[in-house]
Every structure is written in structure tokens, then in C-alpha cells.
From TrEMBL:
Family per record: Belongs to the sodium:galactoside symporter (TC 2.A.2) family.
Transmembrane segments: 12-34, 82-100, 112-133, 154-175, 181-204, 234-256, 268-289, 296-315, 321-345, 374-394, 414-438
SUPFAM superfamilies cross-referenced by the UniProt entry: MFS general substrate transporter
Descriptive protein name: MFS transporter
Keywords: Membrane, Transmembrane, Transmembrane helix
Range of residues in the leader sequence: none
GO cellular component, one term: plasma membrane
BP GO annotations: carbohydrate transport
GO molecular function, one term: symporter activity
Organism: Halioglobus maricola
């Protein structure tokens, strides 16, 4: 592979645009997919939740396998970028199949179709996320430049999330038949999500030298990242924050529809939350450069918990604007919890190189990707099961003047109570342990700078080591 040129603003922006698919598709899935299955395809909430959970069994194999495959890939374009071409075509096909409103009479046939298409989509997500996340640690080795790049990633992710939150229902409502509306939405978003992957293949570069070492796929390869203490801390922070976000996202539309009885404002409230996150990304990146990534993560949790408490206490006689202020408060906390784990991730792959003597960023990325998808599945499954057992009543679907009309049914008190408990208890139970994990996270900017110089020496990019034997052992005890 030829020596790549210095990274430019254009390259950073193109690489960041890859998160358009990752952030946007996750939001569409979290906000709409459960309701699409229960209200459009019309399978039971329990079966809908089961579809998503069962697919994670496959992900437990495919994600770490993809990590090994991308670590072992050796081509003239690098070891991550060739997979981006496959991702381009996979996104176009899988996203449309996912939202195809299959018309089987049998619920069993519907279940099988939904399960197979979801597994296909999940596999495509793996092909995208694992090489992409791995490359985030290799497009640059500089601590602050990585923060900037990951800030751009999250900017694109949040803009895409905003569009994914507010546009789907607008598109669906343009059609007399909601089923055709969902399918049209899927076609438009699949094109929007796929284009950046071809641009990344042509216009981005990997900047960490390719080693000769190869990995093999085994249970050990999956567990190997967990041997690194710094990674264990990161995965706790990452998984708990995203699980909390996914559960609340899955239930939020039901909360707006049935608890607040403000169906028409659901998109606006979600949009307020996401716009707040977009606006605050530069501030979060700047704060991380100044005070540290783990510190920003901890204070973000406190903001999020304050918003969750207010959301659970919300009464219908409060001023109308209050729900928007609460959404902004939640968004100001969520942004730090979303940005920081991915800003920390490239630094942790450097710790992995210190531990094993060569880079296994793909293996780390495989575990991160599986954790992300598993948290989304647990979120949808949990909400689906709670709605099922609390007695959720789906909308009534009738044909009036050639147009399908959905009529919401009044929900029993058990469903309303369940919605209140979910928006309050889930953040409390998940974010408090995440806060304490961040308090003991050991890798800061100064330590990473010394680690980076040592790794450059070990790769042959420096003539002398910056660490003596005692300092090196001390660093290993701290980080590994």
C-alpha cells in the first residue's frame, strides 16, 4: 500500500458521512420498526420482539467473524475499504426488503419472512460497521484529530437520525395505502444511506502500517478484547448508555401517543431532542479535548438522568412547551454519552496493540458492533414483551373512501403505567453503573500521548523508546 497523503478536511467529511447509515438506520429501527411490525405487518408484539432478539444469535457469530476477516484482509486498497463496496450494494437491497409489507395471511409465514429479512439486514450492518469502526482508529493516530473525526461522524449520524425521526411518517402519510408509503420510505432512505460508502472507498485512506500477523476465528478471538481492562471499561460505558437510549427510543412513540395523547407532536419532540444533540456536538468535542472524554461522559449522564426524571413526572396539565424543554435536556445529556464511547474506541485499539504486539482493531470493533446491535435488540424485545403482557391494543385498520385509516384504541391503565416506568426506571438502572465505570476509566490524553510515541517506536517509526522498562510495566498494569 502506498504512503497515504496527510488527512484533509474533505477526507474527514467523507469518512464521517459513513455514519449517515449507521445513525439513521438505528433511529428508524428503534422508533418505527416495532410499530411497523405490530401495526402494518400485524404480528403480535411478543413475536416482533422475538424476531429481533433471535437474530442476535447470528450476530454473536457474524460480528466477531467479520472482525477477523477485516483484520486479515490484505489488498492494494487496504484491509477495511474493500468491504465498503459490498456494503453499498447490501444497504440498497436489505433496507428495502426489511420494510416490504408482506401480505401473508398466516402469522407464521409473516414471522419467517420478517426473521429472514432482519437477519440479512443485520449481516449487512455487520459488513458496514466492523470495518468502518476499525478504520476510525487507523485514518489518524492523533488524539485530538481522532476526536474531531469522531465528532464529524456523530454530526452526520445525528443529522441522519433527525431525518430518520421526522421524515418517515411524513412520507408514509403521502400515500393512501400506508404499506406503499413504508416501502417508498425504504427505497428513498436506502439510496441516501448507500451513496457515502462508495465515496469512502474512493476518497479515504488507512494510515496505520499493515502488519504480517494474521488472526484466526475462534472463541478466543471473540474473547480476546475482553482481556484488556481499558476495553472492558469502555464496553460497559458503551453498552449501558446505548441500551438505555434504545429502550427509551422504542417506547417513546407509544409514550407520546398514549400517555401524553399528543400524537401529532411526536416527531417535533423527537426532533427537538436530536437538534439539541447536533448543536452541542462541537461543544462536547471541545470539552473532551480540554477536560477528558470520561469526564464529559460522566457529566452527560447526570444531564440525561435529570431529563428522565422530569419525563416520568410529566403531567398533562403542565405547559405545552415543557415537553420540548425536557426533550432538549435529555438531548444535551445523550449527546455526550453517544459521542464519547466512539471517541474513546480508537485509543483503546492502541492499548490492544500494546497488549498483543499487533493491531486487532477489527476484533475490538466486532465486539463493539455486536454490543450495539444487541442493545438495540434488547431494547425492542423488552418493550415488545412489556407491551404484550400489559395488554397493549393495536390500532384498528379500516378502509374509508379508498384509503386505509388507522384508529388508535384507548389503552388500559396497565399500559400507561408501564410506559411511565420504562422512561424512568431504565435510565436509572443502566446509567448509574455506567457513571461509576467512567470514574475508573484509566486512559487520558497524557497517557495516550506516551502510548502513541511508544507504539511508533515499536513499529520502527522512531529510533528511541520514550519509556524505560519500569515505565512500560507501569503503563501495562494501568491499562491492561
Amino acid at each position: 500500500m502506498n504512503q497515504p497523503p496527510p488527512i484533509t478536511l474533505r477526507e474527514k467529511l467523507i469518512f464521517g458521512s459513513g455514519d449517515i447509515f449507521i445513525g439513521g438506520s438505528q433511529v428508524i429501527m428503534a422508533f418505527y420498526y416495532l410499530r411497523f411490525l405490530t401495526d402494518v405487518v400485524q404480528i403480535s408484539p411478543a413475536l416482533a420482539g422475538t424476531v429481533v432478539l433471535v437474530s442476535k444469535i447470528w450476530d454473536a457469530v457474524s460480528d466477531p467473524l467479520m472482525g477477523v476477516l477485516t483484520d486479515n484482509t490484505r489488498t492494494r486498497w487496504g484491509r477495511r475499504k474493500p468491504w465498503f463496496v459490498l456494503a453499498f450494494f447490501g444497504i440498497l437491497t436489505s433496507f428495502v426488503m426489511l420494510w416490504y409489507p408482506v401480505g401473508f395471511e398466516s402469522e407464521t409465514k409473516k414471522f419467517v419472512y420478517v426473521l429472514l429479512t432482519y437477519i440479512y439486514f443485520s449481516t449487512v450492518s455487520t459488513v458496514c460497521l466492523v470495518p468502518y469502526s476499525s478504520m476510525s482508529s487507523e485514518i489518524s493516530t492523533d488524539y485530538e484529530e481522532r476526536n474531531t473525526i469522531n465528532g464529524m461522524r456523530l454530526f452526520f449520524s445525528q443529522v441522519s437520525s433527525l431525518l430518520a425521526a421526522v421524515l418517515p411518517l411524513t412520507i408514509v402519510d403521502m400515500f393512501d395505502d400506508p404499506s406503499m408509503g413504508w416501502l417508498t420510505m425504504a427505497v428513498l432512505f436506502s439510496i441516501f444511506y448507500a451513496i457515502p460508502w462508495m465515496a469512502m472507498f474512493f476518497f479515504t485512506h488507512e494510515r496505520v502500517p499493515l502488519g504480517k500477523e494474521r488472526s484466526s476465528f475462534s472463541l478466543h478471538s471473540f474473547l480476546r478484547p475482553f482481556q484488556v481492562r481499558t476495553f472492558r471499561k469502555l464496553i460497559v460505558m458503551y453498552f449501558l448508555a446505548y441500551l438505555s437510549m434504545d429502550v427509551v427510543a422504542a417506547v417513546f412513540q407509544y409514550y407520546m401517543y398514549y400517555y401524553l395523547d399528543r400524537k401529532n407532536e411526536a416527531d417535533l419532540v423527537i426532533g427537538t431532542m436530536l437538534i439539541t444533540q447536533i448543536v452541542l456536538i462541537p461543544a462536547v468535542v471541545a470539552a473532551a479535548n480540554r477536560w477528558g472524554k470520561a469526564e464529559v461522559y460522566r457529566y452527560s449522564i447526570l444531564l440525561w438522568l435529570a431529563g428522565a426524571c422530569l419525563m416520568a413526572m410529566y403531567q398533562k396539565d403542565w405547559p405545552d412547551y415543557a415537553i420540548y424543554m425536557i426533550a432538549a435536556l435529555v438531548g444535551s445529556g445523550v449527546v455526550g454519552c453517544v459521542v464519547m464511547p466512539w471517541s474513546i474506541f480508537p485509543d483503546v485499539t492502541d492499548v490492544g496493540e500494546l497488549r498483543y504486539g499487533y493491531r486487532i482493531a477489527g476484533s475490538f470493533s466486532g465486539v463493539m458492533t455486536f454490543s450495539r446491535k444487541f442493545s438495540g435488540a434488547i431494547g425492542i424485545f423488552t418493550v415488545g414483551m412489556i407491551l404484550e403482557f400489559s395488554g397493549y391494543l393495536p390500532p384498528l385498520k379500516t378502509m374509508e373512501e379508498g384509503r386505509y385509516v388507522e384508529t388508535l384504541q384507548a389503552q388500559p391503565d396497565s399500559v400507561i403505567t408501564a410506559l411511565q416506568l420504562i422512561v424512568f426506571l431504565v435510565p436509572m438502572l443502566l446509567l448509574i453503573p455506567a457513571f461509576f465505570a467512567a470514574r475508573t476509566y484509566p486512559l487520558d490524553k497524557v497517557i495516550h500521548g506516551r502510548l502513541r510515541e511508544y507504539l511508533e517506536y515499536r513499529r520502527g517509526q522512531r529510533e528511541e523508546s520514550n519509556l524505560d522498562d519500569e515505565e512500560l510495566e507501569s503503563m501495562k498494569r494501568l491499562l491492561i
